[in-house]
Predict the 3D structure of the following.
Amino acid sequence: MAAVRVRQHVNPLSHKYRHTVEPPPWDALYARPTQPLHLDIGCAKGHFLRQMAAQQPEWNFLGLEIREPLVSYALKLRDEADQRNLHFVFCNANTSLKTLFQGGTPLPLQQVSIQFPDPWFKKRHQKRRVVQPELVVQLADLLPCGGRVVLQSDVEEVAQEMCDRFAENAAFDRTTAEWLPQSPFPAETERERLTLDKGLPVYRAIFQRV
């Protein structure tokens, strides 16, 4: 399959990405919808989740991505591999997360990952970063006690800001005060592999729902 080329960044605050997405028929998408669910926010081409779904068939995986061509690409590869514990949705997580899980969805969310999000370095653009207080509140509402959120970035400023947003919410506790030396996952994102191959650090933290 030819490589998919899309814009690296899109503005999540633009009108084009402010619509909400209704929940799909989860029972028809997953072979076993009552398995624990891992949600990956900003999944890009789904490389990480395809690995995870293959290695952990006892889990279901859901990727959310704001760039529609990447979702189409990820779904095509999912279908070619016949991975019935994996799905991808084109949406803006900050506007659609609540509606995706409304209506008594059978998906038992247990784990969330937010990995290498767009850094939006310019000060005036930082309100576009994915981890906002409202997103943290929604995740607190969706995750059960003991559920966890795994954060990773190759930009320390971005990783620290994500940690600050979760630390501000009393529903979450950070599991370690220091950055984690290794990923808790048996798979890697493409950005993670590129960063590690260059010998550069990855800043990681886990927050648990209390």
Observations:
- The chain has one domain: 28-209.
- The two ends are 44 Å apart (CA to CA).
- The CA atoms of residues 183 and 204 lie 7 Å apart.
